[in-house]
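call fold(seq) -> tokens
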Amino acid sequence: MKDFILRRQVVLYLVFYFLIILYLLTFPTTVSWFLFYAFTLLLIISYASSSHRLVVRDVSWHVNEANGIIFKVKLSSKRALPLFLSSLKLTLYKEDRRTQHHQTAFFNKYVTVTFQPILLKRGRHESLSLDIEGMSLFGLWVKRATHSIPVDIDIYPLVMRKSSRANLMKEIHPLLSHAHHSVLHDFYVKELRAFQNRDSLSDIDWKTSMRRNQWMVKEYEREEEAPIDLIFYGQASEQFEALLSLTYSLFMEWHAVIKDNVFIIGRFKYGIETRQGKQAFLTVQPAQDSKELHRCLNESLKPGRKPIIVTSKTHSLPVLRSPNQTYLILDDDYLHHFKTE
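ret:
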């Protein structure tokens, strides 16, 4: 609509300019000549002010906590001359994600613009598009240009806030501690012996002491932490992205412990497969083939490890290859931690 108004302004101006020429030819007076020169000069200045070729001098960006890209760009004319455009309308976009900014530009040699955060889709982004509309003086002409801005931006799933992650850990730790293998410490009795002066009263096993008629102390040994595997089961569901964010939040919480022992099962570029490590969060997509998903899940289960499987409750898991292996399932019921943010 605005483009139509601008074109109408040009048409009206040219019609009025044509009428002035007719008036000059009919009545060649001093006033008519003055109007002709004045409107001609205005038309030339307006057109000349829009003749700049805008170039991108510098770009920078960073990702905020909400996965928004705060983008900064510096523009100037090709020959670094002052701009005579009255204003600039800049649109930064990638597919259906966009953000706009309006900036005055008259007689500025450089124009630096910081956009409001743009939320890009999860994945790796190598370029963004920048549309520029420059308004000439008097609003008669519009200078348009489109630039492809090379970037190197990785957008990972959204991470829970620290307080929400703490609440999540508080909720699942009891479930982990009941398992034979756990990220928590399990304690086992190493020795039952008589009380010694160096022992604390809190170490006394009162039940055994009453039975033996002397103070007895149980000395415990700690079992080494059993390694855990974090598995994302990426079957298509409405909660796919939210469950992936839940998995990524757990990965960020435990990454020092599990390192690359995170298994992302889903559809990738060459089909349904299992990928390990942080980079897999960027490109995984929902998968429909249950048979292939089941195969990948069973291949990901390793003996002697504790799998934690994140999956949608709308899909039942297959019969696991190691039915005696203890595992923990996290489903849609744990997504309420995102809603409290």
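Confidence is low (pLDDT under 50) at residues 178-187.
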